[in-house]
Amino acid sequence: MVIGICEATFRAEWVTNLKEKRMVVKSLIERTRHKFNAAVAEVGRQEEHKMFVIGFACVTNETRHADEMLRNILDFMENNTEAELVSAEREIL
To answer: Which of 3, 6, 29, 70 has its CA 20 to 30 A from that of 93?
Structure first.
């Protein structure tokens, strides 16, 4: 069993309050869950309105497939939000 995990930090300078941020984050998480068979959640910076951290994970039987899934999910997230990807930490277990 191979597990791929990633923690992606985004910056949304145009967001003015937590309610607006939560709408952006919830939408991105739901679209990602719908497209990929992966666990996705907001995992950090919940009280900051201009930054958010989304974690996601996948389980597969090949390291190459786990890495490919993480890259695809990260690309999808980056292309489906107006927020800027600040950093992403990936790990294959």
So the answer is: 29
